[in-house]
Amino acid sequence: MITGRPTPPEDWECCESECTPCVWDTYYEDLREWNEQQKQLSNAEKKVEPKDEHQERK
């Protein structure tokens, strides 16, 4: 689980030598995972519906 939004690498962190993986590849993968995680958390929150206090009691 990624706890916070990933931060992009600093300019000096990329050597532009086409490394595999590049720091940018790692960043974009982490960002993709973080976005997916946020989407799942948002969907989970939407599924939790507040109880309607005005519903009839049986």
Structure characterization notes:
This protein is an all-alpha fold and 58 residues long. The chain is built from one helix and no strands. The longest helix has 25 residues, at 23-47. The chain is rod-shaped, with a radius of gyration of 20 Å. The mean pLDDT is 87. InterPro entries: Oxidoreductase-like_N. Residues 44-58 have a biased composition (Basic and acidic residues). This is Oxidoreductase-like domain-containing protein. Residues 39-58 are annotated as: Disordered.
Given the structure, what is the number of helices? 1
Low-confidence stretches: none
Strand content: under 5%
- Helix-strand category: mainly alpha
Question: What is the rounded Rg?
Answer: 20 Å
Principal-axes shape call: rod-shaped
Rounded to the nearest angstrom, the distance between the terminal CA atoms is 42 Å
Helix share, percent: 40-55%
What's the oligomerization state? single chain
Question: N-to-C SSE series?
Answer: H
Please describe the biggest sheet, giving its number of strands, its sense, and whether it closes into a barrel: none
Let me know the number of strands: 0
**pLDDT averaged over residues:** 87
